[in-house]
Every structure is written in structure tokens, then in C-alpha cells.
């Protein structure tokens, strides 16, 4: 399974302009990587990590959702993207949406741990559930940014999950934490972990250095994208998960 990690830099709080920019970059990336099966975009890819939910949050009838549907169907890919969805109350939801290759919503995950250092919990409603979904026979799950600091969330989906996606807006000032925690989650859960972070600078002046990675179940880095790269492609071997879990059955000793 070939996975394309897109380190997209959105236009700050401007979803329409971001969609126009991404359409160009996605076309270029797919031309360069025609065997791609899964495309992964960062957290809140169309706006950046903004608390202005009244400006950026949309419904499933909005242009962001429609664009994701169209792209997944057009390119025949699974598409994972972070979006701000309008809620039933005053708060929005920081979500990861998963679309299949027919443009159908396969899964929806709401960020379980809001980043309250930045006041996220005042504007976004925290989720309570993890999700599992299947891509080409591979059991997958997805988490969002700050969730990465909470290993108990990952234990909720393992050993079922063989591949875990983490989408983020993780600032360069804590880049060491991002890369270390991604490796830790792969090692302790003996699964593939794909972490996709953005690049550039946001409207708050925070700088992002990318560092999107594919890490195998042994903790080895299969692919890495630095701050100069708009995307990076990599391939997973699902059989490697079962081989490592069989040879080293550490997960069976959980309590």
C-alpha cells in the first residue's frame, strides 16, 4: 500500500483559497506518484490551527467536504484529512474524515484531547470515541495532534489496528517531541504509524517544520519529509506487522 503524506501549508483561515492551492498541489503529487492508494492531509488542513470556528467550521454540505469527496473519487484514492465541522452547539469539532475511493465517508474521528494550552477546548468539543476502519484489508485508526501525547488512546485500538495515522499542526519548537512520540507509539504498539504535519508559518506566527514520517512496527523510519518538502511517498508491508507481533508477542502481556 503506497501512502502519500502531504505537508500542506494552508492559507490562514481562508478555506476557499486553501482548496484552490491544494487542488494544484494534489494534482502535481498524484502525477508524480500514480500508484498512490492513500493520501493524508494535516489537521485542519484548510484553515490552519485557528480558534475562529465561526469563520472556518463548515457542515458536511460545505465546500471543504465536497472537495474531499471529489478528489478521492477523481483519483481513486482513500483520503484522510483534518477538518473543522460545525457542531450542534456553540463549539465546533476538530475532526479527521476518511473517504474511500468512491468519495464516500468511511470514518469520522473527533479529536479526543483538546490542546487547552492554546484554548482549544473553549472552541472545539472533545470527542469520546476511537475509530477503526479498513483500507484494502488493513485495519487502521486515526488520531489528531495532541492525542499523540496520550498512549492510552492508542491502546484502545491495538491490537486490532495495524496502521495508525496521526494528523497534526505540530510547531517546530516541539519537533523533537513529535518525532520521538511517533516512534514510541509505533514501537509500543507494534504497528505502522504515519504522522503527517504541516509546513510554513501560521497566522499566529508559529513555524512548522513538517517532519512527516512513516515508521514501521519495529520503530524504524521508512520515510521522512523535512520542511522543504511538500509531500513524501512511502509504502507499507502489512505482513510485517503480524510477523513482528508473532516473533515478539509483547502485546499479549498487557494488563
CATH hierarchy, class: Alpha Beta
CATH-level-2 architecture = 4-Layer Sandwich
The general outline is: globular
**Helix percentage:** 25-40%
Number of strands: 14
Give me the strand/helix succession.
Answer: EHEHHEEEEEHEHEEEEEEH
* Largest sheet descriptor: 6 strands, mixed
Uncertain spans? none
Terminus-to-terminus distance: 32 Å
User: Strand order across the biggest sheet?
Assistant: 5-4-3-2-1-14
Based on CA atoms alone, the radius of gyration comes out at 17 Å
- Name the beta content range: 25-35%
CATH-assigned fold name? Nitrilase/N-carbamoyl-D-aminoacid amidohydrolase
Individual helix count? 6
Give the CATH superfamily: Carbon-nitrogen hydrolase
Structural class: alpha/beta
What would you note in describing this structure?
With 255 residues, this protein is of the alpha/beta class. It has one domain: Carbon-nitrogen hydrolase (Nitrilase/N-carbamoyl-D-aminoacid amidohydrolase, 4-Layer Sandwich), CATH 3.60.110.10. The protein is built from 6 helices and 14 strands. The protein has a 6-stranded mixed β-sheet. A hairpin with a 7-residue loop joins β3 and β4.
Question: Can you describe this structure in just a few lines?
Answer:
The chain is of the alpha/beta class. It is built from six helices and 14 strands. It has a six-stranded mixed sheet.
Give the topology:
Layout: E1 2-6, H1 15-32, E2 38-40, H2 53-56, H3 63-75, E3 78-85, E4 93-99, E5 105-110, E6 133-135, E7 138-144, H4 151-155, E8 163-167, H5 175-189, E9 192-196, E10 199-201, E11 207-209, E12 212-215, E13 221-225, E14 231-235, H6 238-247
Parallel strand pairs: 1-2, 2-3, 7-8, 8-9
Antiparallel strand pairs: 1-14, 3-4, 4-5, 6-7, 9-12, 10-11, 12-13
Helix pairs in contact: 1-3
Amino acid at each position: 500500500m503506497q501512502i502519500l503524506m502531504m505537508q500542506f501549508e494552508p492559507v490562514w483561515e481562508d478555506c476557499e483559497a486553501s482548496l484552490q492551492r491544494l487542488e494544484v498541489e494534489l494534482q502535481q503529487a498524484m502525477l508524480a506518484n500514480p500508484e498512490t492508494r492513500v493520501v493524508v492531509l494535516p489537521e485542519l488542513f484548510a484553515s490552519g490551527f485557528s480558534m475562529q470556528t465561526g469563520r472556518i467550521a463548515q457542515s458536511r454540505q460545505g465546500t471543504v467536504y465536497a472537495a474531499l469527496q471529489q478528489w478521492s473519487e477523481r483519483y481513486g484514492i482513500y483520503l484522510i484529512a483534518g477538518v473543522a465541522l460545525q457542531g450542534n452547539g456553540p463549539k465546533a469539532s476538530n475532526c479527521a474524515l476518511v473517504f474511500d475511493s468512491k468519495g464516500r465517508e468511511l470514518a469520522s474521528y473527533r479529536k479526543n484531547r483538546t490542546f487547552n494550552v492554546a484554548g482549544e477546548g473553549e472552541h472545539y468539543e472533545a470527542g469520546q470515541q476511537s475509530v477503526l476502519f479498513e483500507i484494502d484489508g488493513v485495519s487502521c485508526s486515526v488520531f489528531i495532534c495532541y492525542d499523540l501525547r496520550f498512549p492510552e488512546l492508542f491502546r484502545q485500538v491495538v491490537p486490532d489496528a495495524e496502521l495508525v495515522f496521526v494528523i497534526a499542526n505540530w510547531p517546530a519548537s516541539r519537533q523533537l517531541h513529535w518525532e520521538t512520540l511517533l516512534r514510541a507509539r509505533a514501537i509500543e504498539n507494534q504497528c505502522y504509524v504515519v504522522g503527517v504535519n504541516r509546513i510554513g508559518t501560521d497566522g499566529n506566527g508559529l513555524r512548522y517544520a513538517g517532519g512527516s514520517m512513516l515508521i514501521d512496527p519495529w520503530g524504524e523510519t521508512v520515510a521522512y519529509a523535512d520542511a522543504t518538502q511538500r509531500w513524501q511517498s512511502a509504502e507499507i508491508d502489512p505482513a510485517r506487522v503480524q510477523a513482528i507481533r508473532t516473533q515478539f508477542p509483547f502485546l499479549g502481556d498487557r494488563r
